[in-house]
Each structure stands twice: as C-alpha cells, then as structure tokens.
Amino acid sequence: MEHAIKNILVTGGCGFIGANFIRLELAEREGPSITNVDALTYAGNPDNLADLAGNRRYRFVKADIADRSAIFDLVASGGFDAIVNFAAESHVDRSIDDATPFLRTNVLGTQTLLDAARAAKVPRYVQVSTDEVYGTLGPRDPAFEETTPLAPNSPYSASKAAADFLVRAAYHTHGMDTVITRCSNNYGPYQFPEKLIPLFITNALDGKPLPVYGDGMQVRDWIHVRDHCRGVAAALRRGRPGEVYNFGGRSERYNMDVTKAVLELTGRPETLIRHVTDRPGHDRRYAVNCAKSESELGWKQTVTFEQGLAETVEWYKANSAWIDRVRSGAYRG
After folding, report:
1. pTM value?
2. Signal peptide span per the entry (predicted)?
3. Are strands 210-213 and 273-276 parallel, antiparallel or unpaired?
4. Domain containing 148: what range?
5. Which listed residue (58, 134, 156, 245) is catalytic?
6. Is the C-alpha dihedral spanning 174, 17, 234, 298 positive or negative?
7. Long-range contacts of 294-299, Cβ-Cβ distance < 8 Å, separation of 24 or more
C-alpha cells in the first residue's frame, strides 16, 4: 500500500541531504507541499535552496527541533501527512571534540518531534539515520543488515542510535506509524566541505593538501545523495510501519582509492596527499545490504560511483561562489 502524502514537514532541509530531498520531491512529484524547518546551524545553508523562495509549494521556518514550544506549535498547526527528520549534527570529528550538541539535536530533538507528531496525530514519521549505528566490520564480514545489532563507536553514531531507539519505542509503546532509514556514506552536490569527498575536491581544485587519516585503508560504501533521497521517498510512501530500511551504493572503496580518484578527476598530482594522525576509534569498514529495500520498496541504486563522482567534481567546479560563501561564512548571513 502506498501512502498518499500531500503535506510534508522536512527537518534539517537546509543541510546537504535534506536539501537534495526537497529538490527531488518538488521536481519529480506534482502534489506534495513541503515545510522546511531548520535551525541554520553551521551546516544549515540557506543558499542550498535559495532559488525555491518563490515556489508556492515550499516554505521555510527557522526553528530548533529541540525547542518544544516552537515545534509543537508548528506541527499542531501544519496539517502534515508526514514528518521526515533529516535534522542532525553529523560530523564525527566534531562529536569527538564536544558531544553536547549531538545529544541536544539528535536525541532531544528527535524525541521532541515524536512527541509533537503524536500530539498532532501526524500519520507517518520517518527517521533518517545512518549505517554508522551498526559499528564497524572486519574485512570479510557480511554487510550490515537491518537486523544487525547496533554497536555505535563514536559520540555521533551513539546519538543517532539513541534516536533510533526512541523512534522504535514510539512505535511499540504508542503505536505510532514510524519508519527508520539507514544509509551508507553520501556524496553529491551541496555537501558541506568538511566531509571527505567535498573537502578533497575543493582542496584539490585549490592545489591544497588532502589530509588522509592513518593509512587511508578504511573502507566505505558510497551512495550518491540522489539515490539515497529516492530511497527515503520510497520508505515514506511504501515502508511498513515499525520497519527499518537500509540504503547503500554497493560501492565499497578504500579511502585512499577515493582520494586518488578525486585527484585524477581534478587533474592534480598525488603529491598533494598528506597522511595525518588517525581519528580516535575510527571505524575500519562499512558495507550495507540493501536487499530488503530493493524487494519491499522497489528501490535500487541508479548512479554508479564513477559516474556520480565525476558529476560531483563538475558541480564543485561550476559552483565556486557557493564554496567561497561556505568557507567565508557569508552563507550564514
């Protein structure tokens, strides 16, 4: 059964994945209207959706998802068919320095949204999570499945796992219609240049060093953000209540190989590679089994890593003004 979704509350829609989801929904579907609520912290960039300002199906509300008064008022008055929660503090290095903002947004914020959704009887709630909640894999371990026990290893992934448990509890305790999605490493347009691929692309274009953690042999499963957003849209409309759905790119790559691919696409030499001290508790390998999403949701990956990385490099080349505004902080107004 496909849920009829006409009015969506998207949280964290000025971030990388949320912005791409909003663009996908407005471009590929004629019906839904979207309200985007974002606190506009450092990773929430209004420039990501600036061209939608005149779109009658889109509106923006500045608010913190952990602000109970603001969120309860918004949800109560919105008449929403669904809430899709992308809002999150998501940078592992920052969580190692200070986990407090991660607990506020990822845990308290999620519970606030669940409480507001239950009070307003919102028909469906989708929690956008991460494969990092599963922990790490050995070289020959099978890929993460939805039934893999959660074993987070960083303050960031621990906060996301806690949020997932709260969503699970809302389903089992209160009978809420909730769905959780977990995805592997995303890349693509509008990604804040602190993450590996956009950082390495922008550094390479400027002839700056590319800092590779440790030996660079960590393995990640890369998925283009467009495929991830298509998966979230499928889970929103066709996911079974109380279920978890994994999305992956079937594109496991060593970080060092990704680094070299970026250098090749940007025409820069490998002498720009700099090995730096590894991150504390750095997970060695992620891989995602997305067979359940393929069979139940009719979803499948459409963008190969080679195609997607080449497109992403070209996007950053063509959007130097966006990069400059992020680096200077001008995007924060």
Report:
1. 0.96
2. none
3. parallel
4. 7-332
5. 156
6. negative
7. 296/238, 296/239, 296/240, 296/243, 296/245, 297/231, 297/234, 297/235, 297/238, 297/239, 297/245, 298/234, 298/238, 299/230, 299/231, 299/234, 299/247
Adjacent-strand bridge partners of 288: 144
- Residue 131 is among the residues annotated as catalytic for this protein: yes
Residue 61: beta bridge partners?
37
**38-42: Cβ within 8 A, 24+ apart:** 38/11, 38/12, 38/13, 38/14, 38/62, 38/63, 38/87, 39/63, 39/64, 39/65, 39/87, 39/105, 40/14, 40/332, 41/89, 41/101, 41/105, 42/192, 42/332
Tell me how many domains the chain contains.
Answer: 1
Domain membership flag for residue 222: yes
Residue with tokens 């979803």: 299
* From 38, 81, 89, 132, active-site residue: 132
pLDDT, one tens digit per residue, over 180-199 is 999 999 999 999 988 999 99
Q: Of 25, 64, 81, 131, which is the active-site residue?
A: 131
Structure tokens at 174: 């209160």
Give 128-158 pLDDT, tens digit per residue.
999 999 999 999 999 999 999 999 999 999 9
First to last CA, the chain: 44
235, pLDDT greater than 90: yes
Rounded CA gap, 208 and 273, in Å? Answer: 9
2 in any annotated domain: no
Q: Are 86 and 15 in contact (CB under 8 A)?
A: yes
> 156 catalytic, yes or no?
yes
β-sheet bridge partners, residue 178: 125
Q: Give the domain CATH number at 258.
A: 3.40.50.720
**Could you give the CA distance from residue 203 to residue 197 in angstroms, rounded to a whole number?**
10
Whether residue 25 lies inside any domain: the answer is: yes
Is 294 domain-assigned? yes
